[in-house]
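Exercise 7. Predict the structure of Limonene-1,2-epoxide hydrolase from Mycobacterium paragordonae.
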Amino acid sequence: MTETTENSEQIVRDFLGSWGSRNLDTICDGFADDAVYHNVPVQPIEGIDGIRAVFQGFLDAFSAAKLDVVSLAAAPGLVLAERIDYFTMNDGRKVVLPVTGVFEVKNGKITRFSDYFDLADFEAQSGLRL
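Solution. The predicted structure, encoded as tokens:
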């Protein structure tokens, strides 16, 4: 499959929008088996099993999540998405986090996903340590 700007953008928008479903399979559907997920302040996670485990951890910690796109730039196989991520912790606390994600797409799947954000801000708001 040859990536186009349109399909690369749609794959990323589908992923970002999927968090509202809280369904792990739906959230992970757009990832290649050998994908890499990197919350840049911490070590990257390699492979879909590791990515699923991290995403399940987020689902376990938050009762709701919404990833709002502020701006998005796409090219064939590459998408940059500036976002505000909104999480509701299980105890009701709110987390509001500015994030920029860089996505590489190949053969219709996300092969690399790197998120850039202020780790100290996330940890202070959420009480979690990544």
